[in-house]
Design goal:
GO molecular function, one term: heme binding
Shape: globular
Protein name: Catalase-related peroxidase
Family: Belongs to the catalase family.
Pfam families: Catalase (PF00199)
Helix content: 25-40%
Order of helices and strands: HHEHEEEHHHEEEHHEEEH
Largest sheet: 10 strands, antiparallel
CATH topology: Catalase HpII,  Chain A, domain 1
Number of domains: 1
Radius of gyration: 20 Å
CATH superfamily: Catalase core domain
Function: Has an organic peroxide-dependent peroxidase activity.
Strand content: 15-25%
CATH class: Mainly Beta
């Protein structure tokens, strides 16, 4: 199936402790490799990405996190609830074209899809007034750590000990003991069902944003994409037996039967709910509003797909949607750009034949 034409843009593991640590680390890289300040080490975006590359191996031309994925396309239709909360044109236009990317967590572009604990969906919506809205969402319902400094502690706990060549489990145990959110994330990773498809996975925005209504009222909220396809859990035996491209093949089969839909649902906080800390989930009892529906109807390999050269920076927002004061959200943009620039440079220099579909596995 073909991917819709690209919008022209300027190219700018379950219960063992070690497995839980790997899940936390994989989730953290996708968010916190964007941090420009990490405690006493204070690495720049450049030095932090360099460390990630050194840890994960060289994969020229690929995204430094969520490396394995596919391009998707479709449209978004807003609702009256969306237009009441935000003046953004995307909610009033009708059909808004969508370019997106489905992926798995981690930095290995050849990783087995079914075995990835984290699934992700990134979107670019461009309304007819020229405004862009980019969303970067993940299957975990909250972030594992409350700050960039905490993530640095967790990352250091993963450094292999010279004597064994493996991380010292007592260091990760200390991180888990120190941070309740890390323990909560561990429990989620160990107990939450593994959806058997990208199509029946819920994708969460994690961060708080402010919707600005036509009359100027500002409403904090967090959004999620909730699938219309029913959840079917995939057990460990099925994951182990799955082919490496299981999720992509499954999604292609589902698309052959028709478009796949998710509802974009906003959760509204109560007084006292954390607005600037994505490690603190809001209770499920909070009121919600349905902002619209996402429909995906095309799919293409990322090597030549229109999503390959898009930086899905979640701070790119249309008028009518504003950032919160979440420092992790604020930090992401600089390193997303750094990662984007690196892979684009590698592609331009002919150093990424595999990532561009010119040679090797895709």
């Amino acid at each position: 199936m073909s991917t819709p034409p690209a919008t022209p843009r300027k190219r700018l593991p379950l219960v063992p402790l070690a497995a839980i640590a790997a899940v936390v680390a994989g989730a953290g890289i996708g968010f916190l490799y964007a941090a420009g300040r990490l405690g006493d080490a204070a690495p720049t975006a450049r030095t932090l990405i360099g460390a990630i590359e050194a840890a994960g191996g060289p994969h020229p031309g690929y995204r430094r996190a969520h490396s394995r994925g596919v391009c998707v396309g479709g449209w978004f239709e807003g609702t009256a609830e969306g237009t009441a909360l935000s003046s953004a044109r995307v909610f009033a236009q009708g059909r808004v074209p969508v370019l997106g990317r489905l992926s798995i967590g981690g930095g290995d572009p050849h990783g087995a899809e079914a075995g990835a604990r984290v699934r992700s969906l990134a979107l670019q919506l461009r309304s007819d007034d020229g405004a862009d809205w980019r969303l970067a969402m993940n299957s975990f319902p909250f972030f594992a750590l409350p700050s960039a400094e905490a993530f640095l502690e967790q990352t250091r706990a993963q450094i292999p000990a010279p004597a064994t060549g493996k991380p010292d489990p007592t260091r990760m145990a200390a991180v888990l003991a120190k941070y309740p959110s890390a323990r909560a994330f561990r429990d989620w990773a160990a107990s939450a069902p593994w959806p058997d498809s990208w199509a029946n996975t819920t994708y969460n925005g994690i961060h708080t944003f402010f919707f600005v209504a036509p009359d100027g009222r500002r409403q904090p909220l967090r959004w999620s994409l909730r699938p219309r396809a029913p959840l079917v859990a995939m057990d460990a035996a099925a994951r182990a037996a799955a082919t490496p491209d299981y999720l992509a093949a499954d999604f292609a089969r589902r698309l052959a039967a028709g478009p796949i839909a998710w509802d974009l649902v906003a959760t509204l906080p109560a007084p006292g709910d954390a607005l600037d800390d994505p490690s603190q989930p809001w209770p499920a009892s909070r009121p919600t509003r349905t902002l619209g529906t996402l429909w995906l109807d095309t799919m293409a390999p990322q090597a030549q797909g229109a999503c390959r050269d898009v930086n899905f920076d979640p701070t790119v927002l249309p008028p009518g949607i504003e950032r919160s004061g979440d420092p992790i959200l604020a930090a992401r943009s600089a390193v997303y750009a750094q990662s984007f620039n690196r892979r684009e440079r590698e592609i331009a220099r002919g150093q990424a034949p595999e990532a561009t579909g010119q040679g090797g596995p895709r």
